[in-house]
Transposable element Tc1 transposase
Amino acid sequence: MPGSSKRRVAGQVDRLECAVRNCWEQWTREGTHVRKIGSGVTRKTTRREDRRIVRQALVDATVARSTIRADVGVAIVPQTISRHLAEAYLKSKHPFRALPLTPEHRQLRLQWCQDRSMWNVTDWQKFVFSDESRFVLGTDDNRVRVWRHPV
């Protein structure tokens, strides 16, 4: 890095100063910047435990991450379980609350609207609409989530 400070280079490549320093030291020591095989955080689970995590999510789509962690018997954080399931192309979603509308249902709804298109205010005052909205102030909405392959 002749002529440039590590701080300036780090700013130009949008990396931390220590990352630039480590890269430069590796280059001067080994003549390469390539990452070594096996570098990084060591895995907390074996391949067999990874397959067991995925199998549990496939067998019971509503299983919670805490249940999977207890069944596997390895001290891992919930994010690790989510990462393993994401590697298996599984995503956590809310289950369907109702089946999607069929063309027949859509036709019936349209017919219902057309039948009432000429109603006046007095007719509509006799009718009651209900709308259910859910508001959550905390982080947990206590809804069941399911693990599914993205469509």
Remarks:
- The longest strand covers residues 91-93.
- The mean pLDDT is 83.
